[in-house]
């Protein structure tokens, strides 16, 4: 199973690391598996125990291994900071890398959702009947071809004008046309930024829990992800600074407004201090702000100022309409320094990621057709749905609910056992799909998309959550 170290081929401890990581990559070692003892490893590899300890400590520092007091070393059940060895340039092999990343739980939810009585609270998008009913103008083929003349490397000019007008009016931004790039959704925007400003093996810090944890784009880029704990005010800055020094963090990625999955809104003071900390270490902040428009009240909306407004030179702002148009119409944008936006537009062109003119015209129509009226109606609908979750929380004493002031996700925690994949799939078989915490880098916790929860669903939901409570209590004992 293991190969003796050849000291003529380089560092002995690095060869030990390489062999262990290859076993993980090939699936021969699984998350949670226990490793042989240091003495046995020394025999297997034909090296001294000090070399083995060095290799194992390095893998632990990267988040690939974890130690359990009195039990030994294990493959980490959560892969924060993981990367593939050897450090292949995944940009050349990206399609092959994506092919190895399969969300089997998500596929099982899709399969289960084909049943008419299945309650899908897992999916990341809002249901069609909740989305704003946007009227699309009629275009002739000749008209569409004519509109293509208004497309530049930065996007469709009428759409860019609408985005800029709204960001200036609502978010208090001040920027030039050359500082805005239209993308195929928020995730593509983040992908473009990371593949432009980072190298293979570089590390970035994100909030924990976070939906970024499960995204394949980070592994495709060879980017190492380090999760930083949060409190009620947002990302923990003391822990962030520790990670910056320990892991040589190259960028910080945050989702400050109605964070996915917790719904947390970063406080104004925390935003200021985050900017100051990143200025200190000369780190760019990538601000994913796709939920900004989904505050329940005008007071909440007025209280959340984007981080980009504090430091436009060092904060890259990512927005999106995809949440409002559904998964089939992906439109996002990046606001940042002109020199970087130019480079990002070149990267987008090099990757041959062309945005459909029709998609951009449809997005323009969203702003043209009573945008504020549609948004007000949507916020009211989401707040009404959130009341269902609050009523249920008040009726029991096991699950705790993170505060809800916008967005459409509820984050539940408890004092019982871990929300394992087995428990999540057991709940699936009972007719309810939720997003378990391990998808976000947390062993406890689950996310519910309450935009999909209607009052008629409550009896099924409550009954199944009572079952889940019993299972979790059994796991905790």
UniProtKB/TrEMBL annotation:
Residues 10-78 form the HTH gntR-type domain. The keyword Magnesium does not apply. Signal peptide: none annotated. CDD domains: AAT_like (cd00609), WHTH_GntR (cd07377). The keyword Kinase does not apply. In the C-terminal section; belongs to the class-I pyridoxal-phosphate-dependent aminotransferase family. This is HTH gntR-type domain-containing protein. It comes from Candidatus Enterococcus mangumiae.
